[in-house]
Structure formats: structure tokens, C-alpha cells
Design goal:
Blueprint lengths: L4 E7 L5 H12 L4 E5 L27 H12 L7 E4 L4 E4 L9 E5 L14 E6 L2 H15 L4 H20 L8 E4 L4 H16 L5 H9 L20 H7 L19 H5 L12
Parallel strand pairs: 1-5, 1-6, 2-5, 6-7
Antiparallel strand pairs: 3-4
């Protein structure tokens, strides 16, 4: 098998990333498409006394990015992996007993997949732009059905963790996307478009190079405006997690990363060059 085509799908919590990935896999053929969720790569919480209600799962420090990147690389090389899972009821990582085999198309979906170090592993990067109220509704439906949460708990978590983390870590990665999709009103259109493109790719009607080129041909940098989010400090999500610790929320995360009390830590990180502030 030739090297798989790797597609990244990012967006806020409740935007429909997981549903879209599996919808495409079912339409194209699950024998051809492997879906990897970033949520599979949460670390086990080693503190047995920790209250899961106080854990910000929308903060990148809880994720094993290096293992995810390694697994994508192995799949590209045609090798099997033992993909982990995560038990949200017990806050523990669950290891697979059966290997996961590579397929011709790999979809990696998750909050931070358009950040480094994952971004470099992607052939095509998509961002689902969904209105905040729609994302909150999606989160309520998912967590009440699948994770045993009450509506009040979901709203509380959204206000404390989900919304600020989205502004700091997720929304700015739109600038790294090959395609930003209005997924509030264009869900069916984008799903059908991507499905047909992948069917053409699998049928060899279009090469991987031409498919990637066609997606990136429409790419344009949004620029930095006073009303726009942008990636503060660095594009590396692991370093960004150190700059903004789990319990630190900047005064205005859309605009000024210097508002974080943790910014002094960044000055000691020699791996990143300090950017100039936008005017």
C-alpha cells in the first residue's frame, strides 16, 4: 500500500468532528478509512483522589501528543499500532489488545490537531467553524448521553474550561487550516464534497498530490486583526500548554498573550523565538 493520505479535522468541542469523521468513513468504506480521535490519547490521571469535575480535559497538558505523532508515523510506514482508548468514567487510559492496521485514508480528529507537533503529520488540514451556541448544544447532547453528565454539569464545565480553552488553544489554529468550513450551515455540503473527493482518490481518478494541491490552492492566511484570534507565543501546543497552565485564563485570550501570569515561564523556553506583538 502507498503511504496513506492523512486528513486532520479540528474545531471546538461539540462542533461535530467525531461525527463527521465516522460519517465519511461509513460513506467511503470503513475498509478504506481509519479514524483516530485525539481523545484516545489522554493520559491516565494518577491521582485517585482527583475530582474529574475539576479536570480541564480541554487543556492540552492532559494529552500524549508524542505517542499520537509516533502512531501516525508508523501508520504512514505501513505498520500496525496498538492504539489506546480512554475511559472518561474512571479517567484511565485503556490499551488495545488487538493491533490497528493502516488504511489508505487516515482521519485524525481533535481539538488541537492543527497545532504542532501534529500539524506536520497531516496532508490536509480542515477546521470546522461552528457557532458557539451550536457547539454548546452539541456538547450537552454528547456528554449527557455518553458520559453520564447532567445538563448543569455540562454548562458549568463549558463556562469554566471549554470556552476559555477554545479561545486560547483551538480557535487560533484556524490560520493553519487548508480549508475553514462553515460547519454551522454547510455540514452536508462539506461532508458530501469530502466524501466524493476521497472516493475519486481511492478510485485513482485523482492522485494524492493533486488532491492535496487542490485543497491547498484555496488557502489564504486570514491575517491578524484586533477582532481575530491568532496563535499566541508559538504554534507548538506542548509549549503553549506550559505558557497557559490549566487554571490560568488570560484577561483577553483573543488578543494579548502577555496577559497570562505564566508568561514569565515562556521567557525561559529557549526553543521558541518571541514574536512581535500585532498592532
Amino acid at each position: 500500500m502507498n503511504s496513506p493520505l492523512v486528513i486532520g479535522i479540528a474545531g471546538g468541542s461539540g462542533s461535530g468532528k467525531t461525527h463527521l469523521a465516522h460519517e465519511i468513513a461509513q460513506a467511503v468504506g470503513e475498509e478504506n478509512v481509519l479514524v483516530i480521535s485525539m481523545d484516545q490519547y489522554f493520559w491516565t490521571n494518577d491521582d485517585p483522589t482527583a475530582d474529574s469535575r475539576e479536570i480541564n480535559f480541554d487543556h492540552p497538558q492532559h494529552l500524549d501528543f508524542q505517542l499520537l505523532v509516533k502512531h501516525i508515523r508508523l501508520l504512514r510506514e505501513g505498520k500496525n499500532i496498538f492504539a489506546p482508548g480512554y475511559d472518561f468514567l474512571h479517567n484511565t487510559r485503556v490499551w488495545a489488545t488487538e493491533p490497528t492496521q493502516p488504511k489508505q485514508v487516515i482521519i485524525v480528529e481533535g481539538l488541537f490537531v492543527l497545532s504542532q507537533p501534529i500539524l506536520s503529520s497531516l496532508d490536509i488540514a480542515c477546521f470546522l467553524d461552528v457557532a458557539a451556541d451550536e457547539r454548546l448544544l452539541g456538547r450537552i447532547l454528547r456528554d449527557t448521553r455518553e458520559r453520564g453528565a447532567t445538563t448543569e454539569e455540562v454548562i458549568n464545565r463549558y463556562q469554566r474550561f471549554v470556552r476559555p480553552s477554545y479561545e486560547i488553544f483551538v480557535h487560533p489554529t484556524r490560520q493553519n487550516a487548508d480549508m475553514v468550513v462553515d460547519f454551522t450551515f454547510r455540514r452536508t455540503l462539506f461532508s458530501n464534497m469530502l466524501t466524493h473527493m476521497l472516493k475519486d482518490f481511492l478510485a485513482k481518478a485523482i492522485s494524492a498530490e493533486d488532491l492535496i494541491s487542490s485543497m491547498r490552492g484555496h488557502r489564504s492566511m486570514a491575517g491578524v486583526a484586533r477582532t481575530d484570534s491568532y496563535m499566541p507565543v508559538t504554534n507548538d501546543i506542548e509549549i503553549l500548554a506550559k505558557v497557559y497552565p490549566e487554571m490560568v485564563t488570560p484577561i483577553d485570550p483573543r488578543r494579548n498573550h502577555l496577559s497570562s501570569p505564566a508568561y514569565d515561564e515562556y521567557r525561559d523556553l529557549s526553543t521558541v523565538q518571541e514574536p512581535a506583538l500585532a498592532i
